[in-house]
Design brief:
mainly alpha, 2 domains, two-stranded antiparallel sheet, 4% strand
């Protein structure tokens, strides 16, 4: 269904000086960033503008490549994206085990304990997929708000 305004249009009119990035390429980039470092590198080399692009999977479920790599616990892909200038967020910091960063965010805005990232994955989940490196973050998050931790099916069992 096409959107039609039922309100006055904004007065500001942005000028599109550069061609917009292909939605299909952006979707592919975000999907590859969940699990395939080589394809993530290939597409980013081809189109650097993909780095911080976000896909709306529907209903406001926005996801970047960094978000996908973070909730999959792909530290290698996360590191690559951060080294290229991706914008870190609290979910990524939780997965990486960045305890002081997570504490700072929650001190600034305590309601973030209930924030949801892509696909509704919360902070506790991101710390879970971070494994041993994020154990201190998971313990801290549980001390702030205890949640039931469910097994993550794609995590390798020890």
């Amino acid at each position: 269904m096409a959107f039609e305004r039922d309100y006055e249009a904004p007065k500001f009119r942005p000028s599109w000086k550069k061609e917009q990035i292909s939605r299909l390429m952006l979707q592919d980039f975000v999907i590859f960033a969940h699990s395939e470092l080589d394809m993530t590198k290939t597409l980013l080399e081809r189109e650097p503008g993909l780095l911080n692009g976000a896909v709306d999977w529907g209903g406001g479920d926005f996801e970047t490549a960094l978000g996908g790599a973070s909730h999959m616990g792909r530290r290698d892909i996360v590191t690559f994206l951060l080294e290229r200038g991706a914008r870190i967020d609290i979910f990524c910091a939780a997965m990486l085990g960045q305890l002081e960063v997570v504490k700072s965010f929650l001190t600034l805005q305590p309601a973030l304990i209930d924030a949801k990232g892509p696909h509704g994955f919360g902070l506790h989940f991101h710390a879970q997929v971070g494994g041993d490196d994020a154990q201190a973050v998971l313990e801290y998050l549980q001390s702030v708000k205890m949640v039931e931790l469910k097994p993550v099916p794609f995590l390798k069992k020890k």
